[in-house]
Amino acid sequence: MPPKTIKLNKRDxxxxxxxxxxxxxxxxxxxxxDKGSALLASSDNLKLIKKVGDAMGKTVRVTTDDELxxxxxxxAGVLFGESETKPAKFAVRVSGSGGKSRFSDIMGPHxxxxxxxxxxxxxxxxxxxEREFRSEYxxxxxSKFLKFFVFSLFVLVVGVFATAVFxxxxxxxxxxxxxxxxxxxxxxxxxxxxxxxxxLLQVPxxxxxxxxxxxxxxxxxxxxLTGTKAKGIVTLxxxxxxxxxxxxxxxxxxxxxxxxxxxxxxxxxxxxxxxxAGIEIIAxxxxxxxxxxxxxxxxxxxxxxxxxxxxxxxxxxxxxxNSTSAKVLSQADVDKASEGLIADVIAQAEDxxxxxxxxxLRLLDSGVTKEILAKTxxxxxxxxxxxxxxxxxxxxxxxxxxxxxxINIVTAKxxxxxxxxxxxLPDGAKKYTAEFxxxxxxxxKGVLALHFQTIAAYQVDxxxxxxxxAGKNESEIKEILLSKPEVDNVEVKFWPEWFVHKAPRxxxxxxxxxxxxxx
Length: 519
Fold this sequence. Notes:
The chain crosses the membrane at residues 145-167. The protein is of the alpha+beta class. The protein has ten helices and 24 strands. Helix 1 (14-23) packs parallel to helix 2 (43-55) and helix 2 crosses helix 3 (67-76).
C-alpha cells in the first residue's frame, strides 16, 4: 500500500500533525509542506514529528519545495526519498574539582616556626680537647681501650644532647568552628529589570516558550489474576409463594465475600421451600480460594428479589479453581508516569535553557504554564507487562531566572551583617528553595520567596601561638587553645612519639595548621 500523503497549511503547527497521526491508520505518512510553513522554521519541529511517529509506530516523512526546508528535513532524518541517518553521538566529559582548600590557605601565612628536615646527627670531632688529653696523659700512656671508651662516651653525650635539642617537633592542628547560616528573603522578579540589584532585592527574568519531549520507562504495578474458576452443582430453595425465574446476568450467589454465577438462566423455580436441584454455578474469579466444601450455603442476590428468602446449598464440593498472578499495566500506572514526565519536562527545559544562555537558569513550576501536546504509551491498559514506555510532549511557557543572581544577592545581604570574626566559605555549599509568593505571568513579574542555607566559619589567628605553646604537654596545649571561642577541636602529635611528650622549648619546631571542623 503506498504511503498516505497529507498537504498541510503554512500555519499548521506540531499539534495539528499529532492530531493527524492519531486519526490515521496508515503506517507510513508523508506530510507535504509549502515554502514558509511554520514547521520548517526549525529542525526541532521536524525532529518532534519524527519522535511522535516513532512513539506511535508510524514512519513519518516530509516533502517540500523549500530548499532550506529540505536541509532541515534532511538534518532531522525525515526528508522523503532519503534514508534515515543517525546523529553522531558526542560524549561530554565534565571535569570536577576534587581538591579541598585548606583553611590555612584561606587564613594566609602565620608564624608557626620553620620545619627542618630530620637528619641523622653525625659524630662531632673536637681536635683541641683531643690534644689536651694527649698532653695531660701522655706520660701515663693510657691503654687503647681507655681511649676508645672516653671517646665513645663523649660522642654519646653529644648525640643525646643534639637529639634532645634539635630533633623534637610538635604538629598542632586547630579545627575552627563553623555554623550554618540561613536567611529568608523575598525577591522581586520582573522582565523589565536589566540587572540583579542586592540593595533593592531585584532580579530580572527571562521569558521562555519551549517545546520539550520526554520518553522514559516505568514499571507496571497492576496485578491480574489468571487461571481456572471453581465449578459445582447447587440446589435452590425458594421460600416465597411464587414460582421464580433468575437470570444468570443479574443473579449472584455469595458466601464469605466470594461471588458465584449461574451458567445459564434458571426458570420455573418451585415455591414454598421446594428443592430445585442440579443447578450449575461457576466462580466469578479464578483461584483455589473459591474451591468450597459440600453443603456450603449461598445467599442468592438479585435486585428483583429484594429481601426474599431464597438460598442455595452445594450438593458436592466446588473444585477446579486455581490461579496465578501477573503484572499488568493499570490506569494508575499511566497517570503516575504522566505526572513524573511533566516534572522531567520542566527539568529538561531548565537544562536546555542553561546550555543556550551559558549560565544556570531555574524554572519553577509556579512560574510556568504547561500545555501537553501529546501523551502516548507503548502498551495498553490491562496488558500483561513488567514495564512500559511513556512519551510526553509539552510546551513550557513562563519565567526563568539566573541562579547566580539569586545566590549573589543573598550572600551580599548576609555579608552586610556578618560579624568580623566570621566569613562565608567560598567553596561552601549554597542551598536554597524557592517558590513564587505572587506571580503575574501575563505581565511577567512576581515575588520570589526564598529560603537560603550556607556555612560560616570563624577566623583563627595563629600569630604568636608557637611561643605560647613551647614546653607545654598535650593537655596544656588543648586547654589553652580550646579556651578560645573560635576553636572547635585540637589535635596534637609529638615526634618522636617514644621520646617527646612536650612541645620543644628551644628549637621553635612547633607547626600549626588550621582546618575547618567537619559538621
